[in-house]
Amino acid sequence: MSIILNNVSYTYGEGTAYEMQALKNVTLKIDDGEFIGIIGHTGSGKSTLIQHLNGLMKAVSGEIYFNGRDISEEDFDRKELRTRVGLVFQYPEHQLFETTIFNDVCFGPINQGFDKNEAGLRAFEALRMAGVPEKLYYQPPFDLSGGQKRRVAIAGVLAMKPEVLILDEPTAGLDPKGRDEILDLIAGMHRAKGMTIILVSHSMEDVAKYVQRIIVMDDGQVFLDGAPREVFKYYEQLEKIGLKAPEVTYLMHDLKNRGMAVDWDATTVEEAKQSILKLFQ
Amino acid sequence: MLRDITLGQYYPADSPVHKLDPRVKLFGALVYIVSLFVFRGIFGFLLATIFLLFLIKICQVPFRFMVKGLKPIVILMVFTAVFNLFLTPGKQVLFHYGILTITMEGVKNAAFMLVRLTYLIVGTSVMTLTTTPNQLTDGLEKALKPLSKVGVPVHAVSMMMSIALRFIPILIEETDIIMKAQMARGADFEEGSLIVRAKNMIPLLVPLFISAFRRADDLAMAMEARCYEGGEGRSKMRPLSYRRMDYGAYLLLFSYLGGIIALRVFL
Fold first, then answer.
1. Contact of A80 with A90, CB cutoff 8 Å
2. Nearest Cβ partner of A82 from B11, B186, B202?
3. Do B177 and B46 share a structural domain?
4. pLDDT of B3
5. How many secondary structure helices (H) and strands (E) does chain B include?
6. Cβ B177–A89 below 8 Å, yes or no?
7. Does one domain contain both B8 and B81?
């Protein structure tokens, strides 16, 4: 079970004055059960890339394989692919439309062809997983707070029981508390269900704390690909493409340069804390 | 898929037509449309063609962008041509079968009507492709200014127009995103009967309307926060004023119109 991209390129507005190459020969392999962060500044091709993974966008050149099958093949069921690779868009609360939260979450499973009962069961399960309080299930989705709406929207994708979940900036526009809650929710799903999760973000802090692998995009190309520790070693190069390593990386480098034997490639505050405490023991 | 709308889409280039005052272009489009319905006979047609080709040549917009605007009116053109072809009475009958009669006059009418419609769209496309929507409304506001003396809310109307135009690309993009978001949840916008497809639009239209209202609300708030109070005493950042080349363009335009009228009267 894996997604493989081979030399994928995509160009917006081909043949017009506004032609722009958004992806340039991207080659990637995404394995089952991975927790991946995709980082890059605005316009680096992150969003274009993830829309290729579930077949919403069609590569201009190159191939994408899902579980060994080329998704651009004539008889490949792209509608089914979209339910197996769930994609939560940026500001997903903007897609809510039903009269009640419950009905909105049922939309996905019903489109998959499940009957009312099965769809309802899936919706309940998804809403519980997304941490939406039960008393809200039959309320209209439009009166909720931003964070709650986003949970409902994520539940709407989860209800289809995707094997791979892609989230495009799931924390954009949320306050720090809402942000932590959503990220903990996502990390919990990875732990409990072993889902493959791809998290798109431009916050290094968010990504460093949770993911196992980071893919850095720049100008439509994969700039770096590796474990957080490996990627943040190149913090000087990251700065050149408009990104930053987590603050704690800078702190640890500073401490090390001043002669403290700390673990300088710590990527989270917790790791850094342990490393500094060890020094004083 | 939704990005293929050219009518009213600006094509950036550095040509003399782009630099003209928008009022000249507005008036020019009007004159050109009038001239299309004034000309008669082959010489008038030639003059209109030469004028249009000249414009296309100097405005530096690829030709296929102008022709793109023709796609949506193909059906209208076919209808017009067919009606003109079969329903024009005339002396010289070329073809007769049952109730279908084609006369020489009918062929002529149909051909000229096709030419007129094509030139009309291409000619106005020259204007919209070389002028940003904001310039256009600016030009319109200034040109219609005298009407405000008799109580027409010229500024308000032009402000509404520019806001509406400004929001078209935003809403198109938004539609695209919502459509994709719902497709990611298994929605299907292409299959099924007409009624099924109309019903399938609900997941697209409800969020779109909500977001349009939200945007309108935000914009109104932002304008009020910056003390917008309507057109009274409001000055322009780039006031429109005619330059030499604009007068030149007017001269060219009037000689063209004169030529068309002369050809009709004297030939």
1. no
2. B186
3. no
4. 47
5. 11, 2
6. yes
7. yes
Q: Which of A94, A112, A157 sits opposite B184 (nearest CB)?
A: A157
| Helix or strand holding residue A222 (H, E) | strand A221-226
- A196-201 vs A35-39, strand pairing mode: parallel
Dihedral, CA of residue A184, residue A185, residue A187 and residue A193, to nearest 10: 150
A113-124: per-residue pLDDT in tens?
999 999 999 999
Asked if residue B191 is part of any domain, the answer here is yes
Of A17, A54, A97, the CB nearest to B184: A54
Overall number of domains in chain B: 2
In a domain, B118, yes or no: yes
Which residues of chain A are within 8 Å of residue B185 when distances are taken between CB atoms?
A: 82, 95, 107-108, 111, 156-157, 160
Report which listed range, B2-6, B53-57, B156-160, is most confident: B53-57
ipTM above 0.90, yes or no: no
Confidence band for B5, pLDDT divided at 50, 70 and 90? very low
Whether B138 maps to a domain, the answer reads no
Of A66, A37, A28, A29, the residue nearest A198 (C-alpha): A37
Residue type, A8: V
Asked if residue B202 is part of any domain, the answer here is yes
Contact A108 B185 (CB under 8 A): yes
Let me know whether B251 and B219 are in one domain. no
Domain range for residue B184? 150-236
Which of A52, A89, A97, A157 to substitute to test the interface with B, most B CBs within 10 Å? A97
Q: Return the percentage of chain A with pLDDT > 70, whole number.
A: 98
* Pair of tokens at residue A83: 């339910």
The chain B residue lying nearest A50, using CA atoms, is B184
- Give residue A1's pLDDT: 66
Nearest CA in chain A to B175: A95
| Residue A156 in tokens | 């709407």
The residues of chain A scoring below 70 in pLDDT are 1, 15-17
- Judge whether A57 and A85 are in contact, CB under 8 Å: no
Whether B109 and B211 share a structural domain: no
Same domain, B164 and B98: no
B227 with B253, same domain: the answer is: no
Please report which helix (H) or strand (E) contains residue A39, including its range.
strand A35-39
Residue of A nearest to B206 (CA): A97
Same domain, residue pair B75 and B174: no
Interchain contact, A111 vs B187, CB within 8 Å: yes
Strand, coil or helix: what is B2? coil
Confidence of residue B7 (pLDDT cuts 50, 70, 90): very low
Same domain? B225 vs B252: no
Contacts of B207 in chain A (CB under 8 A): 94-97
